[in-house]
Amino acid sequence: MKKRSIFLSLSLALMILLSACAKPASPTDQTPITGTDEQVLLVWDQFYRDEESKVIETLNAEFEAANPGVRIQREVKVLADLQTTVKLALANTDGPDVAQVNQGRNDMGALVEAGLLLPLNSYLEKYDWGTVFSTSVASRNSFTEDGKTFGSGNLYGVSPTAEVVGVFYNKDLFKKNGWDVPTTFEDFEALLAEIKAADITPISFGSLDGWNAIHEYSAIQHLLVSLDYINNLTYAVNNVSFDTPENRQAAQILQDWSNAGYFSDGFPGIGYDDSNNLFKAGNGAMTITGSWLAPELMVGTDQEFGFFLLPPYAGKTGLAIGGVGIPFAIRKTSTKQELAAEYLNWMISPRAAELWDEAGMLPAMALPEGSKIDTKNLFGDTLNAWNTINQGNAVGHYIDWATPTFYDTLVAELQKLLGGISTPANFTEAVEADYSAYLQSQSK
Amino acid sequence: MANVTNKYPGESRWKGWLYLLPALLVYLLFTFLPILETIRSSFFQWDGFSQNKVWIGLANYAELFTDPKFHNALRNNLIFVIFYSIIPIMIGLFLASLLSRRPIPGFAFFRTALFLPQVISMVVVGVIWRWMFNPIFGPINTFLRQIGLDSLAISWLGDFTWALPAVGSIGTWVQYGFCMVLFLAGMQHIQDEYYEAASLDGANAFRQFIHITVPGLRSEIAVALVTTIIAALRVFDLVYTTTRGGPGESTMVTGFLIYRAAFTNNRIGYAAAIATVLTVIILIISLFIRRFQRQGIEENA
User: I want to staple A184 with a disulfide (CB 3.0 to 4.6 A). Which of A298, A314, A415, B238 is the partner?
Assistant: First the structure.
């Protein structure tokens, strides 16, 4: 008898506790505080680095000044934190009204499929965003309504910044040794051999973190394939294959570079940041990565750096990996959608472009007329590179968007390729296995 | 028996349960229910945030048992047992018998210094050792080059053969201090007379170690085995901060597969299935070691 009463009182206490817990978790929808007309816009972004954060702070303050009664409540997270928490937050009715949502299937695609993001098509017309960014840029932030097809359908986000992957080079080393910026891929490979012969590391690189190996490979791949192919591959449409002669050739080139010792000694055991720090300290003549590194290379070093696009084969044109940064999106259940859209429009305004420029980051938008930014430096080089591929319709893709597991597969297979334990054919076959399995699962 | 227990002095028994209640509730809410929820999730296909949760029965488990990535990760976990458990216990036994048998100047210092790795957060440990192993400016390779062993100055964390032992040896570094302190405590219960008698019989230090110290520490060794093997099987943070499972899949462990499935591939159900299988494996191993420990105690008695 005793036992039973204990059990009863225990479960009773548990029930009380549970119900007490449940109460505050119920949706407390934000009705404006009575008396004031203050409207709070909750925004999550991942611009946590000093320079970036200042840009957002300035933009937010100016937005509040232009919209009396509006207060922006900002929450900053590093990208990995944002990615793991934003999905659950957007599923809540008291989640952020505006949040940066990473592109690709695992993030934006999954959120669209779950019906948690607001389609922005009506605002695209209202604010005439078609004049701010091209359709090629828009498709990177687009999904069909079921979240299944990437690159078409509704627009779900707008990106304030742009990125291009190319070659950073140490100007001092180049000058001292009489090397010129190569204009063809043939010249580039000859230069690699020349630098190696001078006993200098041609390409500062470390593949321990994995992801940047994808850029190393894909930058070469982008010189060999067509824009149609890279679009089809990335958006997983029109049944293309990864196991192609071009992709295999790119793998061969990468492995040859590794075998020839063109990368940093012991590169498989060096992390991305470490390899950049070594490069910044004058260790290595070049490094292949994205324009986001430029601000870091402009301060705190006595070396002078420049940037160029990986040059195309003689007589041909090439693409470059590039795109727009992580876009801002609106929660579908937000009660302040109009205000949120206004905010998005402000984040891609000419004023925003100006501030990003000053911070040394590439804006996705054109600069306002007559703005005077110093472009005779490293930042100017990245800006020119972006303008070149943007105007030349040569903006490629981050290929790891192609399938939900593509990133993991590419990283593992590239490390094997670079480590010499698989052949270029093994590489393209293994990646194709991932790709075709995904295409098959989609067509079901 | 029942009559006796009811006649303990003091308050009646149900009040005793009342004292347990807060802790019990915390345990139920934050340990037991989440475990049940994890097991339940493993029967669903779910992305972790949408309403779209589909019952798929044992499909996650069926996929798991045929997934070569899972087999590879589990194999790596078992290799980690050598580095996390077997080697630290051997080092711990050796150091403990060295420190306990005769007074050593600075004993407290050694005990604290050797235990220190256990106190540091695993993320910090990972960052430190990533730097230690750096092929260009890391102290290990700098040292190797200085003493002329250039050929040994390899890219530890990026080498397909050496990455797993390298990460494993970090585990050894973290765990041996814990084992040593545990054994030091246990050795205080072994009576000195045993050693005296043994030396009178002419047993050298090594034989004393094998025939007195090791059997005397049976319980402590069992505790060390359970905790370190569990640490080896659920390792995640160390791999995350050093190699992220690379190069290739050569340091991939089940803990990292769970993280990847849940947080980058949006497959909560599959992640839960891996977690459930891992938990069952850990439970079986723990029970097995406890039985071994009980048997030992019975034999001794």
Answer: A314
The better pLDDT of the pair B13, A290 is held by A290
A176, A245 contact by CB (below 8 A): no
Decide if B204 is inside a domain. yes
Q: Can you tell me the distance from the alpha carbon of B297 to that of A182, in angstroms, rounded to the nearest whole number?
A: 76
- pLDDT tens, position by position, B209-263: 888 888 889 889 999 999 999 999 999 999 999 999 989 999 999 999 999 999 8
pLDDT band at A21 (very low <50, low <70, confident <90, very high): very low
In this model, does residue B36 exceed pLDDT 90? yes
pLDDT above 70 covers a percentage of chain A that reads 91
b vs e for B90-119, b when ≥16 Cβ sit within 10 Å of the residue's Cβ?
Answer: ebbbebbbebbeeeeeeeeeebeebbebbe
| Fold annotation for A39-157+326-363 | D-Maltodextrin-Binding Protein; domain 2 (3.40.190)
Q: Number of folded domains in chain B?
A: 2
Query: Does a structural domain hold residue B141?
Result: yes
Q: What percent of chain B has pLDDT over 70?
A: 93
Closest CA to A152 of A223, A242, A238, A90: A238
A103 contact B CB<8A = no
Q: Do residues B24 and B134 share a domain?
A: no
Euclidean distance between CA atoms B32 and B41, whole angstroms: 14
Sign of CA dihedral B184, B186, B191, B197: negative
CA distance A73 to A41: 6
Secondary structure letter of residue A101 according to DSSP: -
Domain range for B64? 59-300
Mean pLDDT of chain B: 88
Q: What is the pTM of this model?
A: 0.85
Instruction: Kindly state the tokens that stand for A329.
Output: 């999106």
Number of Cβ within 10 Å of residue A8's Cβ equals: 10
- Say whether residue A74 is in contact with chain B using an 8 A CB cutoff: no
Of B25, B50, B133, the CB nearest to A269: B133
The reported pLDDT for the residue numbered B1 is 43
**Average pLDDT of span B291-301:** 68
Arithmetic mean of pLDDT, B161-171: 95
Question: Within 13 Å and on the Cβ side, how many CA atoms surround B146?
Answer: 8
pLDDT band at A17 (very low <50, low <70, confident <90, very high): very low
| Confidence band, pLDDT 50/70/90 cuts, at residue A30 | very low
CB A320, CB A147: distance < 8 Å: no
| Separation between Cα atoms, residue A435 and residue A243, nearest integer Å | 10
With respect to residue B50, please indicate whether it lies within any of the assigned structural domains.
Answer: no
**Selected residue of A83, A111, A415, A431 to mutate for chain B interface (largest B Cβ count, 10 A):** A415
Instruction: Please answer yes or no on whether B266 and A13 come within 8 Å at the CB atom.
Output: no
Do B13 and B120 reside in the same domain of the chain? no
Give the start-end residues of each E strand in chain B.
44-45, 54-55
| Equal fold, A39-157+326-363 vs A163-323+395-443 | yes
Q: Where are the domains of chain A?
A: 39-157+326-363, 163-323+395-443
Kindly report the CATH class assigned to A163-323+395-443: alpha beta
Quick one: B158 and B274 in the same domain?
yes
Residue window 279-298, chain A: list those with CB within 8 Å of chain B: 283
* Same domain (yes/no): B77, B212: yes
Judge whether residue A133 has pLDDT over 50: yes
Residue B245 lies in a domain: yes
* pLDDT band per the 50, 70, 90 thresholds, residue B106: confident
Same domain, B156 and B192: yes
Task: Give yes or no: residues B97 and B146 share one domain.
Answer: yes
Q: Does any CB of chain B come closer than 8 Å to the CB of residue A208?
A: yes
The H or E element containing residue B199 is helix B192-200
